[in-house]
C-alpha cells in the first residue's frame, strides 16, 4: 500500500505549497520603511481630496499606489489632480528605492525638487506638469540615469535649461513648455528622444541643429528664438547685431583696406585742403556764436527779467511732449517722430487718430513683458493694413498685418479715465502675466487723445463666434469635447490671474475667450482693464454679478459669477447678451436655467445642437451644470473660488483638458488605468 500512497502524498504537498505561496503573496506588503515614507509624504503635504491611506489597509491598495507583482515594493505613485498644496517634503518619496513612475501633475506643488527624489535609481517617468514649481531646473536631475520621460510643463521655472540633460541618454520625452526659462537652448543630442517642447518661454538665440528635427510648435512662443524650424536668424524678424563699425572678416585682395594703403597724391592733397576749409568754417562759426551771445546779453540788460526769460526760451530746445514721454519698459528705438510717417500709406485704423492727435510729439510704443521681442514700432503700425475684428465694451479691435509679415491685434480703447502714470504702472503689471490660458498685453501707446493696446494675434477667433456664429446655416457645431476644453481653459486662466497675480479679470465672457490652434489652450483676453475706465451702469451683456455696483471695484467672486454664466452659455447654447429668454427680456440666463431645473426639466436646458450631435456625456453635462449653478449663486460667499472650479471641472472629465499622451503610452498598467490617468484623476477607490 505504500507504493500508491507516495504519489498522493507528493501531490498533496505540492498543493499545500501552492496555497502557502498564494497566502504569502496575499499578505505580502512593501517594507515598513516604504509605508512610512508614503504616510510621511501625505501627512506633510496638505491635500483637498481624501485618499484613504491608513495603516489598517494594505499599502498596495491605496489610491494612486501601485506595487510590483509580488506586492513587495512600491513602483508607482500617481496622484494627479488631488489638490496637493506645498513643496514635496524631503525624506519621503525619495525613500522608495524601486519607484519607477511618479505623477503629481495638475496640483499646486511649490518650490523645487528635493535632492533625494533626484537620486532614485529606477525612476523612469516624472510627471509634474501644471503645478507651481519655481526656481531653476536642477542640474542634479541628470543623476536620474534611467529617466525616459521628464515633464515639467506649465510651472514657474526660470533660469537656463541645463546642459546636463544630455546625460539622460534614455530620455524619450522632454517637455519644459509654459515656464519662464531664459537663455539659449543647449545642444541636446539624445537619439531616442521623440518628444521635445520648450514653447512659451523666454528663450533666445538660435535653435541647435540637433533639435531642428522637432516641429515649430515645440519652439513657439519664444519671440527671440530663430533658426530651423523657425525663421532663419538672418531674417528681418531677427536682425543681426554686429558691433558698431565692425568690418566683415577675411577681406579680399583689392578691398578698401588695400586701397587705403595706396592713396594717390591727389587724394592726399584733397584731404589736406578739406581739413583746412573745415577748420576755417569752424572758426567762423565760433566767432558768430560769440557775437550773438554778446548781443543777447546786452538785450537782457536793457529789457530786465521779462526780456531775459523770452530770450532764454529758444536756447532750451524742444520741450518733451506732455503725453508722449516714455514709460517704464522697453520703447521702440527707431522712427520715433510721427510727422509724415503715415502719409501716402495704408494706415491702421486703430492708429490713425494717434497720428492726428500726436502730430509733432515723440510718440512711442512701450513694450512690456515678452513684447520686447517684437521689432516694430508705431510707424510700422501706421503703415499696416487693418481689418476690424470687433467692437466691445472697452473699445474696437483691429487685425494689423505689418509690412514685414507680423500680425498683431491693436485694441483702440475708448473713454479711458486713468492718468498717464496710473496707465503706465498698470500696463507694466499686466505685461508680467504669462500663462497659456491668458492673452497678455505686449505693448501700449498713450497720448492725450489716443490709447492703444497691442496683443498677439490668435487666428482661430473667439469662443462666442464659434458657439453662436451662423447657427443653422450648415456650419459645424461646437461638440461637447471642445466645450469642455474651453470651459477648463477659461477656468485655469482665471485661477492663474487670481492666485498668481492677485488680479481680477473684470470682463469674463465668451467673446473674450480666444481659441488657439492647440485645442485646450484657449486664452482669456481683455483682463483687468476695468480700472482704467469710469464706472459703467451697463450689465456687460448679462455676465456681471448682481452685487456689482462700481465696475472699478470688482471682486474675485464677481469673476466666478461671470465664469458660471459662461459655463451656462456652453451648456445651453444661449447667449447671455440676448435678453429674450422669457420673451419680455425680464429673465437672465442663470435665473432661466434655475426655473427650468426647478420644474425638473433639466434636459430642456441643454443646447439642441448637442442633442443633434448625439452627445453621450449626459452625466458630464449635468455635473458641469451643477458647477455652473454654484458659480452663479446670488450670495457671493456661496460661490467657489476659481481654483476650486478648475478642480471640479477636472474631476468631471480631465480627459477634455490637456491629455498627457506621455503617461498613456507607458504600457505599465491595464486599459482601465490608462483611461483613468488620461482623465487627470486617480483610480476610484473607497474613501473614509
From TrEMBL:
Coiled coil regions, renumbered to chain: none
Q: Which residues form the signal peptide?
A: 1-28
UniProt keyword list: ATP-binding, Leucine-rich repeat, Membrane, Nucleotide-binding, Phosphoprotein, Repeat, Signal, Transmembrane, Transmembrane helix
Q: Which PROSITE patterns match?
A: PROTEIN_KINASE_DOM
User: Where does the record place it?
Assistant: Membrane
Q: List compositional bias (Low complexity) regions by residue number.
A: 305-323
Give the SUPFAM superfamilies listed for this entry.
Answer: L domain-like, Protein kinase-like (PK-like)
| Annotated TM spans | 266-291
Q: Which GO terms describe its molecular function?
A: ATP binding; protein kinase activity
List the Gene3D superfamilies hit by this protein, alphabetically.
Answer: Phosphorylase Kinase, domain 1 (3.30.200.20), Ribonuclease Inhibitor (3.80.10.10), Transferase(Phosphotransferase) domain 1 (1.10.510.10)
Q: Where is the composition biased (Pro residues)?
A: 236-251
| Highest taxon in the source lineage | Eukaryota
Q: Name the segments for region: Disordered.
A: 236-260, 298-342, 652-688
Pfam families the UniProt entry points to: LRR_1, LRR_8, LRRNT_2, PK_Tyr_Ser-Thr
Protein kinase domain location: 383-659
The main place the protein resides is: membrane
GO cellular component term, pick one: membrane
Q: What is this protein called?
A: Protein kinase domain-containing protein
Amino acid at each position: 500500500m505504500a507504493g500508491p500512497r507516495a504519489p498522493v502524498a507528493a501531490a498533496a504537498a505540492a498543493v499545500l505549497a501552492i496555497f502557502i505561496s498564494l497566502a504569502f503573496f496575499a499578505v505580502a506588503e512593501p517594507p515598513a520603511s516604504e509605508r512610512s515614507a508614503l504616510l510621511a509624504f501625505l501627512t506633510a503635504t496638505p491635500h483637498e481630496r481624501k485618499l484613504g491611506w491608513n495603516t489598517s489597509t494594505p499599502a498596495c491598495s491605496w489610491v494612486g499606489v501601485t506595487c510590483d507583482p509580488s506586492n513587495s515594493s512600491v513602483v508607482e505613485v500617481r496622484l494627479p489632480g488631488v489638490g496637493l498644496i506645498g513643496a514635496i517634503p524631503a525624506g519621503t518619496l525619495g525613500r522608495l528605492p524601486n519607484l519607477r513612475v511618479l505623477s503629481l501633475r495638475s496640483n499646486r506643488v511649490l518650490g523645487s525638487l528635493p535632492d533625494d527624489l533626484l537620486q532614485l535609481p529606477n525612476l523612469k517617468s516624472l510627471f509634474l506638469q501644471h503645478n507651481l514649481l519655481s526656481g531653476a531646473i536642477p542640474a542634479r536631475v541628470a543623476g536620474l540615469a534611467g529617466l525616459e520621460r521628464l515633464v515639467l510643463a506649465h510651472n514657474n521655472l526660470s533660469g537656463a535649461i541645463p546642459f546636463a540633460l544630455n546625460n539622460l541618454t534614455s530620455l524619450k520625452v522632454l517637455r519644459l513648455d509654459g515656464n519662464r526659462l531664459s537663455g539659449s537652448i543647449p545642444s541636446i543630442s539624445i537619439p531616442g528622444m521623440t518628444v521635445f517642447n520648450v514653447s512659451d518661454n523666454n528663450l533666445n538665440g538660435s535653435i541647435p541643429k540637433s533639435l531642428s528635427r522637432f516641429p515649430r510648435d515645440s519652439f513657439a512662443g519664444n519671440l527671440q528664438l530663430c533658426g530651423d524650424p523657425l525663421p532663419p536668424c538672418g531674417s528681418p524678424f531677427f536682425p543681426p547685431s554686429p558691433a558698431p563699425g565692425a568690418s566683415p572678416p577675411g577681406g579680399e585682395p583689392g578691398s578698401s583696406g588695400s586701397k587705403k594703403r595706396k592713396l594717390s597724391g591727389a587724394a592726399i592733397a584733397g584731404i589736406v585742403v578739406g581739413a583746412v576749409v573745415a577748420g576755417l568754417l569752424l572758426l567762423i562759426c565760433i566767432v558768430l556764436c560769440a557775437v550773438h551771445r554778446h548781443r543777447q546779453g546786452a538785450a537782457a540788460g536793457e529789457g530786465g527779467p521779462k526780456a531775459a526769460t523770452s530770450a532764454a526760451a529758444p536756447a532750451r530746445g524742444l520741450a518733451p511732449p506732455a503725453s508722449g514721454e516714455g514709460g517704464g519698459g522697453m520703447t521702440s528705438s527707431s522712427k520715433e517722430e510721427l510727422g509724415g510717417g503715415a502719409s501716402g500709406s495704408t494706415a491702421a485704423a486703430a492708429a490713425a487718430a494717434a497720428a492726428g492727435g500726436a502730430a509733432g510729439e515723440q510718440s512711442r510704443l512701450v513694450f512690456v513683458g515678452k513684447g520686447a521681442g517684437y521689432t516694430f514700432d508705431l510707424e510700422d503700425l501706421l503703415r499696416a493694413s487693418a481689418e476690424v475684428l470687433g467692437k466691445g465694451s472697452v473699445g474696437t479691435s483691429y487685425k494689423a498685418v505689418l509690412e514685414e509679415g507680423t500680425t498683431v491685434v491693436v485694441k483702440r480703447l475708448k473713454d479711458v479715465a486713468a492718468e498717464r502714470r496710473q496707465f503706465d504702472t498698470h500696463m507694466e503689471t499686466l505685461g508680467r502675466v504669462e500663462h497659456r490660458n491668458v492673452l497678455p498685453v505686449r505693448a501700449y501707446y498713450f497720448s492725450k487723445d489716443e490709447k492703444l493696446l497691442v496683443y498677439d494675434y490668435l487666428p482661430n477667433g473667439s469662443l462666442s463666434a464659434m458657439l453662436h456664429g451662423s447657427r443653422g446655416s450648415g456650419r459645424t457645431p461646437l461638440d461637447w469635447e471642445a466645450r469642455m476644453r474651453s470651459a477648463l481653459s477659461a477656468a485655469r486662466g482665471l485661477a492663474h490671474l487670481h492666485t498668481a497675480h492677485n488680479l481680477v479679470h473684470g470682463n469674463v465672457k465668451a467673446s473674450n475667450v480666444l481659441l488657439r490652434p492647440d485645442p485646450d489652450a484657449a486664452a482669456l483676453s481683455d483682463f483687468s482693464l476695468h480700472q482704467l475706465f469710469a464706472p459703467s451702469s451697463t450689465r456687460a451683456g448679462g455676465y456681471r454679478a448682481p452685487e456689482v455696483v462700481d465696475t472699478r471695484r470688482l471682486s474675485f467672486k464677481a469673476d466666478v459669477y461671470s465664469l458660471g454664466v459662461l459655463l451656462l452659455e456652453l451648456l445651453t447654447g444661449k447667449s447671455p447678451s440676448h435678453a429674450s429668454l422669457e420673451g419680455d427680456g425680464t429673465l437672465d440666463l442663470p435665473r432661466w436655467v434655475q426655473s427650468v431645473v426647478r420644474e425638473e426639466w433639466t434636459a430642456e436646458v441643454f443646447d439642441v445642437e448637442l442633442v443633434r450631435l448625439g452627445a453621450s456625456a449626459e452625466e458630464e453635462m449635468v455635473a458641469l451644470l451643477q458647477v455652473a449653478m454654484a458659480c452663479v449663486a446670488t450670495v457671493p460667499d456661496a460661490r467657489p473660488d476659481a481654483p476650486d472650479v478648475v478642480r471640479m471641472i477636472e474631476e468631471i472629465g480631465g480627459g477634455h483638458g490637456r491629455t498627457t499622451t506621455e503617461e498613456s503610452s507607458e504600457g505599465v498598467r491595464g486599459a482601465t488605468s490608462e483611461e483613468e490617468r488620461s482623465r487627470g484623476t486617480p483610480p476610484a477607490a473607497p474613501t473614509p
